[in-house]
Design brief:
mainly alpha
Length: about 150
């Protein structure tokens, strides 16, 4: 499992960071994702591991938001420290732009760009047709173009 963790944890964390916009929460949910995979009764197959981990991460993120949707933080967490101020601003601008996308466009884009899943894997995970996934990713990219 440690080899699978080393290979897939960065992608899981990047997706969770894009979904939550909170580095510490993304780290917590990444750990929870791999914990759930370890205690699950089914073995993890290397060929489909990334999709499996991202499905667990997406569900953990949804459950967290459902449990904490009414709570408001006293002060929002700042993004992770960057090498310089410009990189920090770029990260925050990118996360804000992603958060502004409707969920039906954001989710496939994050799974593709940060999760590294193929279109057909995204379609299977989100119960969408392959054409719908391609269209949604294209529309999300068009909406994000002004932020480049």
């Amino acid at each position: 499992m440690s080899a699978l963790y080393a290979e897939h944890a960065p992608a899981v964390y990047r997706c969770l960071l894009a979904w939550t916009r909170n580095p510490s929460l993304a780290e917590e949910l990444t750990a929870e994702t791999f914990y759930r995979a370890i205690v699950a009764d089914q073995p993890v197959r290397a060929a489909t591991a990334r999709g499996y981990f991202l499905a667990i991460a997406r569900n953990a993120c949804r459950k967290h938001h459902a449990r904490h949707s009414r709570q408001q933080p006293l002060h929002p967490d700042a993004p992770a420290p960057a090498a310089n101020g410009d990189a920090l601003l770029d990260l925050q601008r990118t996360l804000d732009a992603l958060a502004a996308l409707p969920a039906d466009l954001r989710e496939p884009l994050v799974l593709y760009a940060q999760g590294g899943l193929a279109y057909d894997e995204i379609a299977a995970q989100l119960n969408l047709t392959l054409a719908t996934v391609k269209i949604r990713i294209h529309r999300a990219r068009l909406r994000l173009e002004p932020f480049r």
